[in-house]
Amino acid sequence: MTNYFDLQAFLPHLAALLGAYILALPIGWDREQEERSAGLRTFPLVAIACCGFIQAAEARYGEHPDAMAKIVEGLITGVGFIGGGAILKLKDSVKGTATAASLWATGAIGTAVGLGSYAVATVIAVFTVMTLKWLTPLKAEAAKSED
Description:
Structural class: mainly alpha
Largest sheet: 2 strands, antiparallel
Mean pLDDT: 89
Radius of gyration: 17 Å
């Protein structure tokens, strides 16, 4: 095994990590604008970490689907744990579930990019942003009508 920096091997990884980062930015921006517990820094970091774990594992375990499945399973569990930290129970209400779900979706974006499923990652990112932007006013309207 040679220990040298291979620019040709590096550039695809850089492109994937940058793609995961860019796809997560609008989600983080939305959460930041809504002043949620996780925001502009957290979401891109979750995406690139998931992407990085997949890419690093593929170099070692890419030919072993069971090993890769365990890596993905670990990412799903780990990101779910991070999301769980965003959820707060306050008296009669629960806050942070949209942020937690957004973190989970962002982990899926990074994982999809790491696996080379750019279309899946893009669709998840678009639907997540649409859900946060378009359904938030509807939720507020529904809450008003309950009062």
